[in-house]
Write a structure and sequence with these properties.
Layout: H1 14-26, E1 32-37, E2 40-45, E3 48-53, E4 59-62, H2 68-73, E5 77-78, E6 80-81, E7 85-86, E8 91-94, H3 102-115
Length: 120
């Protein structure tokens, strides 16, 4: 061996891949902070949570409860804590298959950003 180190391969878990994409979408925002919670990486915009990259690559989205049913029709799923407990109408999960497209990811991030002022 020539003494060269093996290249460092960044974590390419589904959560990290999605987090990297979210960083790109949220880059124009002046105040974004990442916090590890809900088993993923949450993105706080102006100190309020908007979205989180889940460990399996799904997107957890803060949602306006009034729009909950419409968002489920678009492909979101009810967000769960653990296997059974619902997080309520203010939270949805978007499967990674839906957010593979950049425009879809931007749409769902927009849902999270818009809902931060929602009541409920």
């Amino acid at each position: 061996m020539s003494g060269q180190r093996a290249p460092i391969i960044p974590d390419s878990s589904p959560r990290e891949v999605l987090a990297s994409r979210l960083r790109g979408v949220l880059a124009p925002r002046p105040v974004v902070r990442e916090v590890r919670m809900f088993g993923g990486i949450s993105f706080m915009v102006d100190e309020r949570m908007a979205v989180a990259a889940g460990r399996n690559g799904d997107l957890l989205v803060r949602a306006d409860p009034a729009a909950y049913d419409d968002l489920l029709e678009r492909g979101a799923e009810p967000a769960k804590m653990g296997k059974r407990r619902s997080m309520g109408r203010g939270w949805i999960s978007v499967p990674q298959e839906i957010i593979r497209d950049a425009e879809e990811l931007e749409y769902w991030v927009g849902v999270g950003l818009d809902s931060r002022d929602a009541k409920g």
